[in-house]
Design goal:
With 246 residues, the protein is α+β, with helices and mostly antiparallel strands. 33% of the residues lie in helices and 30% in strands. The mean pLDDT is 91.
Length: 246
């Protein structure tokens, strides 16, 4: 899906794709792409609980941010905490949903910058002038090993604990939210994605594809295609947005 949307007085091009992958029976990812707000969520839990958790997170965020004029940092943290509380309460009320949780990466794009709130291992990237930079830090056991130099990025892809999170929505009544603020320039591309993509595609490959493909929709489709070609071990959700050129 691709469209052009006005955001802060400019036209932004957006490409979105979600795919079940090759190994799952259901798609437990969810996303939001309603400028200036964007998000991805990757649910987890038995039965249909992962699907419920990710959907609850996106619905809670969408409802909370609508019409808010407070600073983006404040709105994002409050929205994520509200989503966390909603998921936690639902899991306590229904034994079939016990243990459900979700990642959530929520971003607002506004004049000259983006603000990202982040919990889990879904990611946000910036691509500028052919170079890619990860804006978020995974809350996972493997990320800690990579950060300390114990594992390389490529070794992390094969590590048996690569899916073990240290932080997620719904795990506790409250949650700590990482905040990232990044200045933006005309022509920048931003990527939000779940780990169905990053589990099999390296960061530099993401940057190459997002630089080579002129259309955000084609870039999103190609990223999903490559992830599936490499086994599609999980659901894959990709949100690509491009800021207007001068």
């Amino acid at each position: 899906m691709q469209r052009a949307e006005e955001c802060d007085g400019s036209v932004m091009r957006i490409g979105v794709m979600t795919d079940i992958g090759k190994a799952r029976r259901t798609n437990e990812d969810a996303f939001l792409a309603e400028p200036p707000w964007f998000a991805v969520a990757d649910g987890m839990g038995g039965h249909a609980a992962g699907d419920v958790a990710s959907r609850l997170a996106i619905e809670a965020v969408r409802s909370f941010v609508a019409g808010r004029e407070d600073p983006a940092e404040t709105v994002i943290v409050e929205a994520i905490r509200k989503a966390n509380g909603m998921i936690w309460r639902r899991s306590q009320e229904n034994r079939w949903l016990d243990g459900m949780g979700t990642t959530l990466t929520l971003m607002k794009v506004e004049s000259g910058r983006c603000v990202i709130g982040h919990v889990g291992d879904s990611r946000g990237y910036l691509v500028r002038d052919g170079a890619v930079r990860r804006l978020t830090t995974d809350h996972s056991v493997v990320e800690e090993l990579v950060r300390t130099g114990t594992l390389s990025e490529r070794e992390a892809l094969e590590h048996p604990q690569r899916n073990l999170l240290t932080r997620a929505l719904g795990a506790n009544p409250d949650v700590q939210v990482d905040l990232v603020t990044e200045p933006l320039m005309a022509g920048d591309r931003l990527l939000l994605c779940t780990d169905g993509l990053t589990a099999v595609v390296l960061d530099h490959e993401l940057g190459e594809i997002l630089t080579e493909e002129a259309e955000p929709e084609k870039a999103a489709a190609r990223l999903v295609q490559i992830a599936n070609a490499r086994g599609g071990p999980d659901n894959i959700t990709v949100v690509v947005l491009e800021l207007p050129q001068p």
